[in-house]
Amino acid sequence: MRVHVVDHPLVAHKLTALRDERTDSPTFRRLADELVTLLAYEATRGVRTEPVDVVTPVAPATGVRLRHPRPLVVPILRAGLGMLDGMQRLLPTAEVGFLGLVRDEQTLQATTYAHRLPEDLSGRQCYVLDPMLATGGTLAAAIRYLFDLGADDVTAICLLVAPEGIRTVESSFGADAPVTVVTAALDERLDENGYIVPGLGDAGDRLYGVV
Ligand code: URA
User: Fold this and answer.
1) 57 located within any domain
2) How many Å lie between the centroid of ligand 1 and the Cα of residue 27?
3) Which residues of 104-130 are buried (b: 16+ CB within 10 A; e: fewer)?
4) How many CB atoms lie under 10 A from the CB of residue 3?
5) Is the CB of 207 under 6 A from ligand 1?
6) Within-domain flag for 35
7) In this structure, is residue 129 part of a structural domain?
8) Rounded CA separation 206/200 (Å)
9) Residue 36 domain-assigned?
10) Other C-beta atoms within 10 Å of 4: how many?
């Protein structure tokens, strides 16, 4: 498993504005969207391509195009939906699947309540969108779901991650698993309510204007 914290002044600038409690929902949505596109640029560094020949107005040239099967983008409902436009801007031809997971507050186990995904993900690169990697239970369950369908390479794009979440995902799949987490920042810890500290609050509420 690989964790990539994107070190770029524009990423840090947008993240700081997202953290600010005075940032209203419309601005939060726009900034999250822009930040996802920057993270997606890094996250897709390993996207599979194949060589292709084209003819320019001047001469033949060799280039690349995205390889089939197309990458699959999977926003985790609800807050991951707020990241979809920013991701599709970079990967407009990717297929989009949906996964809804809910955590049982007694057992702390995440279970799937909605899914719309291809049945066979063999050979697919999957990009999971989940803004906050907190305890890691939801992301680990989502990745397990995709591996069970045959995915062989999963990249999670998260605005923020906590060390606890990274540990959960790593211990679920092992250090050598084909899992990458791309994020704008690795924060300090979780508080007693499971919020990332300093974090940015409840990402879903801030995206969708719930107070
Ligand atoms: N989910 C959120 O939206 N925020 C957190 O800080 C942790 C989990």
Assistant:
1) no
2) 18
3) eeeeeebeeeeeebeeebeebbbbbbb
4) 18
5) no
6) yes
7) yes
8) 9
9) yes
10) 15
161 lines ligand 1 (CB under 6 A): no
Per-residue pLDDT of the chain (211 residues; tens, 9 = 90+): 999 999 999 999 999 999 999 999 999 999 999 999 999 999 999 999 999 999 999 999 999 999 999 999 999 998 999 999 999 999 999 999 999 998 777 777 889 999 999 999 999 999 999 999 999 999 999 999 999 999 999 999 999 999 999 999 999 999 999 999 999 999 999 999 999 999 999 999 999 987 5
Output the CA 194–ligand 1 centroid distance in Å: 7
The rounded Å distance from CA 203 to ligand 1 centre is 6
Range of the structural domain that residue 86 is part of = 2-48+67-196+203-208
Question: Closest by alpha carbon to 76, among 209, 207, 211, 186?
Answer: 207
In this structure, what CATH number is given to the domain that contains residue 172?
A: 3.40.50.2020
pTM of the model: 0.95
The response to whether residue 139 sits with its C-beta less than 6 Å from ligand 1 reads: no
- State how far the Cα of 197 lies from the Cα of 162, in Å rounded to an integer: 8
Ligand 1 pocket test target in 101, 191, 195 with most atoms within 8 Å of CB: 195
Q: How many domains does the chain have?
A: 1
Could you tell me whether strands 72-77 and 125-129 are parallel, antiparallel, or unpaired per DSSP bridges?
parallel
